[in-house]
Specification:
Length: 118
């Protein structure tokens, strides 16, 4: 019996987050409370193939993530475990499915493997 999890069809999602709550805009992102835990969580999402690219937009109040997941619900469940979401420092304002029309070969390869298990 195999313990390997199979991947479902990949969908690409654009997640828009807003920083708020206890986020201290006078301090750098890496100086925020729970930075180490948040960074470890996000790095794990990258390692798992969930987050393809992400980062803050100019001005620092909004953050965009481009993600791969089988469904919006599966993606929302994964992102909800972020310590910054729990504390109110990040709140998803939209999650939208994206039709990928242009992408580099590396992204195409990730998408061809399918979405990571939820």
């Amino acid at each position: 019996m195999s313990t390997r999890q199979t991947r479902g069809p990949a969908s690409v999602w654009v997640v828009r987050n807003v920083r708020g709550g206890p986020y201290d805009f006078s301090r750098d992102m890496r100086e925020q409370e729970q930075w180490t835990e948040h960074a470890a969580f996000m790095n794990a999402l990258v390692d798992d193939g969930v987050v393809l690219i992400g980062g803050p937009l100019e001005g620092g109040r909004e953050v965009i993530l481009v993600c791969s997941a089988p469904t919006e619900d599966a993606l929302r469940r994964r992102l909800a475990a972020d310590p910054w979401v729990h504390s109110g420092m990040l709140t998803a304002t939209s999650v939208e499915r994206m039709t990928v029309a242009l992408s580099p070969a590396a992204v195409d390869e990730l998408l061809a493997r399918g979405a990571p298990p939820a």
